[in-house]
Amino acid sequence: MSKYVFYYFDAKALGESSRLLMAYGGQEFEDRRHTDEEWPAIKPKMLFGTVPLLEIDGKQYAQSKAISRYLGRKYGLVGDTPEDALEIDQIVDFLVDFRLKAEETSPRLMPDAAVRERNYAAYSKNVFPDYLEKLNAIIVKNNGHLALGKLTWADFMLAGSFDYLRNLLRMPDLSTKYPAFQQVVDNVYSIPQVKSYADAAPYTEE
Ligand SMILES: N[C@@H](CCC(=O)N[C@@H](CS)C(=O)NCC(=O)O)C(=O)O
């Protein structure tokens, strides 16, 4: 079996979807979680200077979406046709657009508090509700999934980043307001091998 090493911070955020997918596929991997303090020494060794990064038999592959899509393809979670794959890709890109917008209100990524709070005030009125409603409608239409009415790697993208998204949105009640989102998360985390991984994984807030 090939040797997989996965590099990310000790967080779920952009990395967890790939960890969950490897657990789903029964792929053993070394889960390298570094601290903020360790990062400056690690960054120059990463292909694009960022994580997540997956190393397969010593070869580095970067970009969270590309890694998760690769794992999805490997484990039969990309549908059957190019149009199926397109339906999955479009919703994943939509999710990423949402996350990038929400990150403009993040203390970590938007250190200027005035800009951050101005963004949050505006987006929580004019931007976030639209993303949430559209995503909610899509999940309801797909019976608790993001695409194709069944489990795909898109579900892992939402499940893995759900805690991060909820924190970015400052919506501790996200699951109550939008139970459909929680349904996607539960559908992924209730898969036995995913549950085993998650039960044993270090706890992180997001
Ligand atoms: N588009 C990239 C973004 C990667 C990214 O920005 N990762 C952050 C952590 S979530 C990072 O490496 N930050 C440290 C840095 O850029 O020095 C992906 O999806 O993998």
UniProtKB/TrEMBL annotation:
Keywords: Transferase. It is an enzyme of class 2 (transferase). InterPro entries: Glutathione-S-Trfase_C-like, Glutathione-S-Trfase_C_sf, Glutathione_S-Trfase, Glutathione_S-Trfase_N, GST_C, GST_superfamily, Thioredoxin-like_sf. It catalyses: RX + glutathione = an S-substituted glutathione + a halide anion + H(+). It comes from the Eukaryota. Residues 2-79 form the GST N-terminal domain. Its EC number is 2.5.1.18. One of its GO terms (biological process) is glutathione metabolic process. Residues 81-206 form the GST C-terminal domain. CDD domains: GST_C_Sigma_like (cd03192), GST_N_Sigma_like (cd03039). Pfam families: GST_C_3, GST_N. GO terms for molecular function: glutathione peroxidase activity; glutathione transferase activity. SUPFAM superfamilies: GST C-terminal domain-like, Thioredoxin-like. Homodimer. PANTHER family: GLUTATHIONE S-TRANSFERASE, HEMATOPOIETIC PROSTAGLANDIN D SYNTHASE. Belongs to the GST superfamily. Sigma family. This is glutathione transferase. The lineage of its organism: Eukaryota, Metazoa, Ecdysozoa, Arthropoda, Hexapoda.
